[in-house]
Design a protein that fits this description.
Blueprint: E1 2-5, E2 10-13, H1 14-31, H2 36-45, H3 50-74, H4 80-107, H5 110-143, E3 161-164, E4 169-172, H6 174-190, H7 195-205, H8 210-235, H9 241-263, H10 267-290
Length: about 300
């Protein structure tokens, strides 16, 4: 069943969009990521213009993240105080990211920037997560238990400390604010929730427990993605409501299944699966950058 998307100005199979939304919802519930790092490139592959894909993906992320968050709240795996600190930085970063996005769109360079950002960040984060996860699994196999990471670091010597009881931490609020700010910028430019960067940062930089990280990440993603969608809709008019609706329906349903799957898996298994997924998407995007397009020339309305 083909549907016409008025803002994207293309026709796409409705069941394909539902499937994409469901897949991203599953990932959201399993890994604590909004899924934008996957849904945005996939929308590129099915013919959605990058500007529309970025803005609309942020809208879909909200629904799948809300669905996953409720499931984690029931398990008390959400650090609301930490989520609030991350959110403060995220909203500021999202506002700056939309300004940068609009500037690049005027220059006609936004498509290239979005693709390059995906290749660089997905490749870097995916590689680091994969290597660390393999080491953790090997240590578990040798000793029968994963060795506890060093809980002291530079984040503990910075000023303006706050106690985060759910995470069992007493650290400076500066690192969480900076992480949230950086993720907010990426959310606006790349159409992602930023979970693929936030989750590793919360685990390896802030030393939060993995189970708490997932729910807390979803909490922050909801508000940053909603704010980003609003800014894109007001300034760019690139949010396709019809496209978002199909992605939302699939995402809400998929998130419930993803949460159940994630609850049955070990933390190291979750991290290595997320790393493999990130690297797979990165490889596909990098390949597309080097391969010549099927249609070298395109006709654009310059009026």
């Amino acid at each position: 069943m083909q549907i016409y998307l008025p803002i994207a100005e293309v026709s796409v199979n409705a069941y394909l969009l539902l499937g994409l939304g469901g897949l991203v919802g599953i990932l959201s519930g399993m890994f604590g990521v909004g899924g934008g790092f996957l849904i945005t490139p996939l929308l590129f592959f099915v013919g959605i213009p990058p500007a529309v894909a970025v803005a609309t993906s942020a809208n879909q992320i909200v629904a799948s993240s809300v669905s996953g968050l409720f499931a984690h709240l029931k398990r008390k795996n959400v650090d609301l105080r930490m989520g609030g600190v991350l959110l403060a930085g995220g909203l500021l970063g999202a506002a700056l990211g939309v300004v940068i996005f609009n500037w690049l769109k005027q220059l006609g360079q936004v498509d290239l920037l979005v693709n390059l950002c995906y290749v660089v960040f997905l490749g870097s984060i995916g590689s680091l997560m994969f290597v660390e996860s393999l080491r953790a699994i090997r240590r578990q196999g040798k000793t029968g238990a994963v060795r506890k990471r060093n809980q002291r670091g530079w984040v503990h010597v910075l000023p303006i400390k706050m106690r985060f009881r759910t995470s069992g931490l007493y650290i400076s609020v500066i690192p969480p604010v900076l992480v949230g700010f950086f993720v907010g910028v990426l959310s606006a430019i790349m159409g992602v929730g930023g979970g693929f960067i936030m989750v590793p940062a919360m685990i390896y930089l802030l030393h939060m427990p993995t189970k708490v990280v997932i729910g807390t990440s979803l909490f922050q993603i909801i508000f940053v993605a909603a704010f980003t969608t609003f800014l894109h809709a007001v300034t760019n008019h690139t949010v396709d409501v019809a496209l978002a609706l199909f992605l939302l329906i699939g995402g809400v349903i998929g998130a419930q299944f993803g949460t159940r799957i994630g609850a049955r898996m070990k933390a190291e298994q979750l991290r290595i699966l997320l790393a493999l997924l990130v690297l797979s998407v990165c490889g596909k995007l990098a390949l597309d950058l080097f391969l010549p397009p099927s249609e070298i020339y395109s006709v654009e309305d310059l009026l």
